[in-house]
Amino acid sequence: FFSPMQSAKESLIENQEIVTETLARVYLEQAHYEKAIAAYEKLSLKYPQKNSFFANQIKLIYDLKEK
Fold it and tell me: What is the pLDDT of residue 10?
């Protein structure tokens, strides 16, 4: 049976398995640095051919955190 309250609660739960470059960039732009780092780490495992790009993004985030 459809429950609007239950659907609303479920919509607030983040799915940690779904990661895209766009999501990682949004986390970075919103200053959610830990989430952005985690997203780029997952992406580097998923797409090893772009590992150097993701490593540079992670380094950039650590540099931003230090400021």
Answer: 81
